[in-house]
Amino acid sequence: MSGGDAATRTRRSEPDTTSSRWRRSALLRGTVYAVIGLVVVSIVRVITGADDIASSGAIAAALALAAPIALAGLGGLWSERAGIVNIGLEGMMILGTWGGAFFAYHYGAWAGVLGAILLGAIGGAIHALATVVFGVDHIVSGVAINTLGAGAAAYLAARTFTGLPGGGPTQSPGLPSLPTVTIGRLADWLGDLEQSGTFLVADVASVLRAFVYHLSVLTIIVALLFVFTAWVLWRTGFGLRLRSCGEAPTAAETLGVNVSRYKLVATVVSGGLAGLGGGFLVLVASGLYRDGQTGGRGFIGLAAMIFGNWRPGGLAGGAALFGYTDAINLRGGDDVIRAYLLPISVFLLLWGFWQLRRHKSGKPVTGVVSVVMAVLVFVWFMIIKAMPSEITAMTPYIATLLVLAFASQRLRMPKADGLVYRRGEAS
Question: Domains in the chain and their CATH numbers?
Fold first, then answer.
């Protein structure tokens, strides 16, 4: 073997440290994606004049709307990592809205937080009993939990809120609020930078200001729950055993893991987190309970979890995206939604050229379709002044579908997720 061949083989055998670090570090990837996204948003703001695209008000609203979605997704992450599909997150969130409102009204805001967790955990316990103990199909049980949660919350609200000042069968009285965090001087300085409109500087300032001006303590707790979940599931023996129940429960049982117990615990925790998401809606986002308040956020949380590839970091990014689109919709951001047509058209154009480059000798159907769509989207951007309100209202759900479509190629769910497990199958 020549010296050159030996050197070549040595180089090939050496690990690509940069690539490997990129794949392993979710924090690094998230930071890079966030910086790129902020630059794109700043460029779009300057070109289109849509100032609300990254205002501190929009970011603050996005945080308030992303938190319940993130909590629902985090609940789904706990259960599905243990092998239990939980499409009953919506029903558990609904139970959490009533629990949060009832306990907050009678015993205070922090009691409302605990009440929301308790009611959600009860929904999770029912789902765990059905799927783990009785072996009911996970989807069937989840649908039943959604129906049960909606019906139970409506009944309990009618029984407990009717006759109270400002209350009724479909809503609660006003509720006490949780503490907020404000760093006055820093918030004022960042506000001045935001008002300057300087490229990128103003956008960075607006994002930072949302985190130091009237930030709910519960939002901070949500962020800490993500850190806690990542540590427990990926850095402790308990988390390793729990994840083994979702990957290979039979093998885990042969090693002495009580699979049923871990599945039960994970599903109850899942319900508690989803219930806390419902509590966030009543205690932070709106200040009172209303019938139908969750608006499908449990399902969107499930989509955010799938988008995040069953990992906390990706889930947080998906929840932030869905919360942001929801916030823009609620703030009447027709001009903001129109402004986003510009980067979408550029992305489709670049994607199309990349696909054409990959398939020079084959059938470049995907590339051609992407280029055509880019042209159509750009023409649409040029000919309209504001997005129709009907499309604006659909934006969060359209974003959900598009994100899942683009992310579908890299997803890998736990291998035993959704499979009915019966104790003793390993013997």
Answer: 35-333+387-410 (1.10.3470)
